[in-house]
Specification:
Blueprint: E1 4-5, H1 24-39, E2 44-46, E3 56-60, E4 70-80, E5 93-96, E6 99-105, E7 111-117, E8 123-129, H2 130-143, H3 156-167, E9 175-176
Antiparallel strand pairs: 1-9, 2-3, 3-4, 4-7, 5-6, 7-8
């Protein structure tokens, strides 16, 4: 298990590097990511959130009928449907392990197609919709140096800024350890 860095850590605000080696260190990284995500608990975790600047994320979110859906996306591409124009107050709330304990409404595309590589370097493609599409967009954003609070509309962006100031976030050095630190992510 690895510590999760909090908003303000430089790695969260940079574009991650493509994975070029599919070796035992990548397998170890992915295993650590699953363990960290499960302990947090979360439904997704990107490598930059644990201080690794690689284009990798893991997810664990069941289908609508409860069938498990757990996997890893390496060097992903994400194609999303147009985002609906509507009042941000009517958006679903989203949270983030790198902005723990807070949730804000954010409008996301309702569907998308994810193309990525699995742990063996084999390409795959999957359609996603609803909350699963939201998770894919959230984790993909992390690989591009974007955290969901960067996308918030007013007045939620100001509320997030106040939390950041109150918590002492927004600067390097803040992290938390799932299973050790008592944070409600």
């Amino acid at each position: 298990m690895r510590p999760i860095v909090i908003y303000g850590e430089d790695i969260l605000h940079r574009v991650a590097h493509a994975v070029t080696s599919f070796d035992s260190s990548l397998i170890d990284l992915v295993n650590d990511m699953f363990e960290t995500m499960d302990a947090a608990p979360g439904v997704g975790l990107a490598a930059p959130q644990i201080g690794v600047p690689l284009r990798v994320f893991v997810y664990d979110y069941p289908t609508d009928d409860g069938t498990p859906r757990r996997g890893v996306a390496i060097n992903p591409q994400l194609f999303v449907s147009p985002t609906e124009v509507r009042d941000p107050d009517a958006a679903d709330e989203e949270g983030c392990l790198s902005f723990p304990g807070e949730r804000y409404p954010l409008i996301r595309a309702e569907s998308g197609i994810l193309r990525a590589l699995n742990i063996d370097g084999t390409p795959f493609e999957m359609e996603c919709d609803g909350w699963f599409a939201r998770i894919m967009q959230h984790e993909f954003d992390h690989l591009n140096g974007i955290i969901y609070v960067d996308r918030l509309a007013s007045p939620f962006d100001r509320a997030a800024a106040k939390v950041m100031k109150r918590q002492g976030w927004g600067i390097p050095g803040a992290s938390w350890m799932p299973g050790v630190d008592n944070l409600d992510a």
